[in-house]
Write the structure tokens for this entry.
Amino acid sequence: MLRLANSALVAHPGVVATIHEALLMVGEDALRRMVTVAMTGAVGSQRSPALLAMVLTRARFCELIAPFLGEDPAHLYLLGMLSLLDVLLQTPLHRILETLPISQSMKMALAGDQCPAGLALELIRSLESCDWTRCEGVQQRLNLADGAIASAYTQSLHWAAAMTGANEATTPLT
């Protein structure tokens, strides 16, 4: 992060010396991309590529539907990234939530709370499992249009495939 903030790409006249300054200089989107790349590299070699693609799909899907829910896209992106942390770390979710330095609302959503963020996770899980009845129920509770869900899910699958270097023709539709 510091290297990026001090690179010629950013064109900052001084030296950026702290992570906070770097974050302000580079921006949240660049940080998100860097975290995604780092997670892909760190976890990718230890876990199945399909699991990593699922995490990335969830993150992107949650980010894309956030505006429809009145939620912060960056907040829901992180929620999607964390939604399979228990599987990635092979640790029970309740133990992870005890130590994870995130907001209480995010912890509740990860634990299955029926708040909009929690329902966003329920929606992506119902899409993944092809549980159309559950998907329709969540869609109605969130007052989302059919086209918004399908579009966000398709975009998410393509984005995850691009991030992992997978061939989109072999990316599963569910």
